[in-house]
């Protein structure tokens, strides 16, 4: 058994004929902020439910801090969990809910709880039925962080939060990792993952297709070029090495794998007025794993639509 905070071994879940997760082998060390990425149906939330033992695996095993997830009492003592869609007792106030959840856990840092309430700008005296989605999310975040658990399982944790509170969440996440806590962050907000995560896993159709640091992902050989022209942009789709072409207001954004020489030769004779290169963002890397001809035609906004699911 390793010293991992989260470990899975051939973890599989099928619902009838549908395979939601297939043979997941994953290891997340203690003190890491780990990103878990994938669109609807990729298996993200299924994985988290398996780690929480809310559903049972078809096969395979999982451990939290070395404890089998099937040992619910022992495993849940080490966990904090924030779902993407929070339901609260409508007749209770925020503080009554936090007090109740704190008693269930048996270990609350009350000074830290009060600090969290202040930093997230939560009014704990209001009844839950009056809370907006963002405020319900704040209650869940306070409840998860206030116990200072070894592992935080966060499934779309910033749903409904405004940008200021998203920044505060990121600060809390970094602080937790600095204190040795492990953060498992499932999110469709790629900028958020890029800002706080050290490594990411990418799921596709229930299978793990990549686990790497952001630096390693960017070093896989792709470069992004933004090219502007004094006339119509040329057709670059058939140029060797070009993996994607997206329209811009005054030109195109081209992703190239390998040598850029064929692309640069094509651009030179096409009325090029400006060329800028940069490393691919996490969003561009992520989309490379999901790119299809139909998706390319739809454009990046359509490809990202609905990317917050299971």
Overall pLDDT score: 87
Pairing-aware structural class of the strands and helices? Answer: alpha/beta
Task: Kindly report how far apart the N and C termini lie.
Answer: 29 Å
Say how many strands there are.
14
Topology pattern, helix = H, strand = E: EEEHEEHEHHHEHEHEEHEEEHEHHH
Content of β-strand: 25-35%
Keywords:
single chain; about 300 residues; alpha/beta; 6-stranded mixed β-sheet; 12 helices; about 30% strand; disordered C terminus
What are the SSEs and their pairings?
Layout: E1 4-15, E2 18-29, E3 33-37, H1 44-51, E4 59-64, E5 67-68, H2 72-76, E6 79-82, H3 94-105, H4 110-119, H5 133-145, E7 151-155, H6 163-178, E8 182-186, H7 190-196, E9 199-204, E10 207-213, H8 214-218, E11 222-229, E12 242-248, E13 251-257, H9 261-268, E14 272-278, H10 282-288, H11 293-298, H12 300-304
Parallel strand pairs: 3-8, 3-9, 6-7, 7-8
Antiparallel strand pairs: 1-2, 1-4, 4-5, 9-10, 11-13, 11-14, 12-13
Pfam families: ABC_tran
Protein name: ABC transporter ATP-binding protein
Family: Belongs to the ABC transporter superfamily.
Architecture overview:
Strands 6-7-8-3-9-10 form a 6-stranded mixed β-sheet, sandwiched between helices. The model is unreliable at 292-310 (pLDDT under 50). It is 33% helix and 30% strand. The protein is an alpha/beta fold and 310 residues long. It contains 12 helices and 14 strands.
Summarize the structure.
It holds the Pfam family ABC_tran. Helix content is 33%, strand content 30%.
